[in-house]
Amino acid sequence: MSGFVANRSGTLYRRSASVERFPPVLPTIPEAEPDKRSSVTTQPEPTLLERIAAGEQRAVNACLDQYGGLVWSLARRLSPNDNDAEDAVQEIFVEIWRHADRFDPSKASEATFVAMLARRRLIDRLRRHNRQPTEEEFDETLSIAPSAESAAEVRTDVARVAQVMAQMKPEQQKALHLSAWMGMSHAAIAEKMGLPLGTVKSHIRRGLLMLREQLTTT
Amino acid sequence: MTKDQYESQLDELIDKVMTAPADAFTALPDDDGALRVLLRELDAETPADLCQSLELAAAAPLVSVPTGGEAMPAHLRRRIELDASNQVGAAPRVPRTNSVTSIQSARRRSEPVAVPDTGTNWFSGAGWLAAAALLVALVFNQESPETNPAETTVADVTPDASDAGESSTPSDVLERNELLEVAGTITVPWLQPNQAGFELVTGDVVWNDALQQGYLRLANMPINDTAARQYQLWIVDPDRDAEPVDGGVFDIVARNGEVLVPIDAKLRVSEPTAFAITLEQRGGVVVSEGPLLVVAPVAS
Predict the structure, then answer these.
(1) Which of A11, A55, A151 sits opposite B64 (nearest CB)?
(2) Strand, coil or helix: what is A146?
(3) What's the rounded Cα separation, in Å, for the pair A156 and A210?
(4) Interatomic CA distance for residues B265 and B247, integer angstroms
(5) Does pLDDT of A33 surpass 70?
(6) Staple B216 to which of A47, A121, A186, B261, CB 3.0 to 4.6 Å?
(7) Are the beta carbons of A55 and B83 separated by less than 8 Å?
(8) Measured between CA atoms, how close is A78 to chain B, in angstroms?
(9) Residues 6+ apart with CB under 8 A from B32
């Protein structure tokens, strides 16, 4: 008998060594089609995060130039005051430096990866402080979703995401906002919006899967 | 699995990913078949991929949040640049391998326990104090290697080699010293181990919650068979979860002198109550099945 884990009451206990492991899921990886257009292989320019992962100090400033405004803006929306927002931003960039090597351009844009780390940290802070978003933050957050017109000016992939959001009914958008960007539980959203729990779950599941599909096809 | 069951499992996972992304893996289905269905339906290779893809989807619209052209305050930017100068481009350290990415629920592979239904407030402070105390007690009360085939014996580690191999880099020494100067950094000595082959291990753990950085200092740690097994650090954190946080894997390739190992916490640690080292299969595991070889409980 060996190993340890804590149960939900906080007590550490040993685990059985005889229990089988979950069998690994082996993905089927299709063979890549060779590029017949050119026999010359060109190396793509490394992204900012790839440069940071490689230890390039100069990329730090470029990264702050590129994503500082985004992270600061998100932190201010989901923090009770500027001091808290500053702490959050500092934590978020520590995460970015630490996890830069986990960025995979085939899964999302670099900006989305940065936003993911920011969201994760901000929601974690909300949870740690056991703080519910205020009505003002709630209203502010609802303005996050861009119009398709404004997003189109920014970048194509952002525009696609905006188009997905635009396809959703206002009720579904609102449920997704509260879940994905304010970290509210399904049950809390159902109560706040006065909707059946099943409807809320369905809205969020479908909305999230639509966004996910859009990312993977971008 | 029916469609309703599938959607129910997915809803549970989504709820967790949205409300507590760092703990999302606890909402993965206990049933292996159900987990495989989720992975297949959502075209994910591993549970970690699955959770991250949902997080990315949730974050995608945030990219276009209006910034109003406002930049972060200059003093904040300077602080972040200073942080980065210590973290970006650090010299290579003690050889390490990423941990396995397959994330499993602890419940799946653990002995059955009665789980009280206490809502979301699962872990009381008192419970975790007891947990930390129990962790220490476990070290001193583990069954002897003779009676437990799963226990580590000296045969699991390579006998002392010459002094060939990696040692701490000057950068490690410097960074650890700098970390010791930072407010909030704690130093926790290892308890004297009672595991056969590990009795002479000494050293300490240096950790800073705010920076999420730390170092293990280990002297007289037995060399591991690097081809088959690696040491793995675990961080017990009462504010996080029942599962100790994976602190990264490392090799000991020379027994002479001290080794500094940077801590590589896979999840954010907010207030650790203990650090423990196990010997695992190469690459590490998600849930430890090895005995606690070296432990450092944080004084409360």
Answers:
(1) A151
(2) coil
(3) 17
(4) 4
(5) no
(6) B261
(7) no
(8) 12
(9) A22, A23, B108
Strand order in the sheet with B202-208: B185-189, B202-208, B213-219, B258-262
Q: Which two tokens stand for residue A164?
A: 């997905």
Closest CA to B265 of B204, B225, B210, B199: B210
Of A211, A160, A145, A115, the C-alpha closest to B57 is A211
Q: Which residues contact B49 (CB under 8 A, 6 or more apart)?
A: B101
CA dist B49 and B56 (Å) reads 10
Q: Does A173 touch chain B (CB under 8 A)?
A: no
Cβ–Cβ below 8 Å for A70 and B67: yes
Residue B265 and residue B212 in contact, taking contact as beta carbons nearer than 8 Å: yes
Q: What is the DSSP letter of B150?
A: T
Is A4 close to B292, i.e. CB distance below 8 A?
yes
Are the Cβ atoms of B212 and A94 closer than 8 angstroms?
yes
CB contact under 8 A, B85 and A162: no
> A4, B244: Cβ pair inside 8 Å?
yes
pLDDT tens digit at each of 300 positions of chain B: 788 888 999 999 999 999 888 777 778 887 878 888 888 888 888 888 889 999 999 998 888 777 677 788 999 999 898 888 877 875 433 333 333 222 222 222 222 222 223 222 222 333 334 444 455 444 434 433 333 433 343 334 544 433 333 455 666 777 888 888 888 889 999 998 988 888 889 999 999 988 888 999 998 899 888 888 899 999 998 777 767 888 999 988 876 678 889 998 888 888 899 999 999 988 888 777 778 899 999 886
Q: Which residue of A has its CA nearest to B263?
A: A98
Question: Which residues numbered 94-133 in B keep a CB inside 8 Å of some CB on A?
Answer: 102, 104, 106, 108-111, 113, 115-116, 118, 122-124, 126-128, 130-131
Coil, helix or strand for A215? helix
B65 vs A70: CB contact, 8 Å cut-off?
yes
For chain A, say whether B37 makes contact (Cβ under 8 Å): no
Contact at CB, A123 and B72, closer than 8 angstroms: no
Q: What is the ipTM of this complex?
A: 0.75
For chain B, say whether A123 makes contact (Cβ under 8 Å): yes
pTM: 0.54
Would you say residue A70 has pLDDT above 80? yes
Q: Are B58 and A208 in contact (CB < 8 Å)?
A: yes
Which chain B residues are within 8 Å of A10, Cβ to Cβ?
122-124, 126-128, 130-131, 238, 242
Helical ranges in chain B per DSSP H:
3-19, 32-41, 47-59, 74-87, 125-141, 170-181
Cα B25-B29-B32 angle, rounded to 5 deg: 115
d(CA B168, CA B257): 10
Range among A70-79, A193-202, B111-120, B279-288 with highest mean pLDDT value: A193-202
